[in-house]
Design a protein that fits this description.
LRAT domain-containing protein; 8 helices; LRAT_dom; alpha+beta
Length: 281
């Protein structure tokens, strides 16, 4: 268990693991779910995103090893790539779940672990593969990024209140928390002696901020089934939802047809009765 992050070998990971790799000399990390067979499902910007927007993780242009590497729905940011393309020559790290609060606070960087407990591997892989076909909404660095995607796949937890401007990502919490901690610790300047004391107070507030925003500690999260995710967040209709709508429309059409046939049958009976009366007369 490293202080910065948990580096692992390829032979150590298994399907359902939340993995990540550092980019730009430890400036930020990119996260995904390992689904087995040297394949990773992860989240980035959609294919048709504005090219002027900075893409934090450029998609692989081609892969000589796996023909399906880079599979991605046209209107989705969820993508399937091989492990090599995911790592992009970087090292492999494993995100830790169910860590003790003291371990969580000892980590120097956000986005490496959580206090939340992970679900069984088969559930994690199911969520990742389902979202590969149905999407995970629009990519947002602070509110809906690759780490948010991986954490949801591992836990099924989703914040109830999206107005906070921050998702489940510990990485985003750290980015927001450091300057905020420095700002809030300024009034303590008169109470602490020298720069060392000031740094200690700032670090303490930074760690406290990371802790209270962790998905395993927050009270505004709930378990959401992946099949209900799109409806819960008001995203575009998922493939399953479209099938259900189509099925409902088909059932309604059948019901209408039955009503029409019954009405026609009733009219035929009335006409037959009138004919019988005329013959009797």
């Amino acid at each position: 268990m490293g202080i910065l992050s948990q580096r692992v070998e390829r032979s150590e990971i298994k399907a359902g693991d939340h993995i990540y790799t550092w980019r730009a000399v430890f400036t930020y990390s990119h996260h995904g779910i390992y689904v087995g067979g040297s394949k990773v499902v992860h989240f980035t910007r959609k294919k048709d995103s504005d090219p002027s927007n900075l893409n934090p993780d450029p998609l692989p242009s081609s892969c000589p090893t796996f023909p399906d590497c880079g599979f991605q729905r046209p209107d989705s940011g969820v993508i399937l790539t091989c492990l090599d393309c995911f790592l992009n020559k970087g090292s492999l790290y494993q995100f830790e779940y169910g860590v003790h609060p003291s371990v969580f606070l000892a980590k120097l960087r956000g986005g490496t672990c959580t206090i939340a407990q992970a679900d069984p591997p088969e559930t994690v892989v199911h969520r990742a593969m389902y979202l590969l076909q149905n999407g995970f909404g629009n990519y947002d660095v602070f509110e809906n990024n690759c780490e948010d995607f991986a954490i949801y796949c591992k836990t099924g937890l989703l914040p109830l209140d999206d107005d906070q401007g921050i998702g489940r990502s510990g990485q985003a919490s750290a980015v927001v928390g450091m300057p905020l901690a420095a700002l809030l610790s300024t009034p303590f300047k008169l109470l602490v002696g020298g720069p060392v004391g000031m740094a200690t107070v700032t670090a303490g507030m930074y760690c406290a901020g990371r802790y209270i925003t962790d998905v395993g500690v927050r009270k505004d999260v709930m378990k959401v089934e992946v099949e209900h995710l799109a409806a819960h967040l008001g995203w575009r209709e998922s493939g399953v939802e479209r099938d259900l709508i189509d099925l409902g429309e088909d059932e309604e059409a059948v019901e209408n047809e039955v009503v029409v046939l019954e009405e026609e049958e009733q009219l035929d009976e009335e006409e037959e009765n009138r004919r019988k009366k005329r013959r009797i007369i």
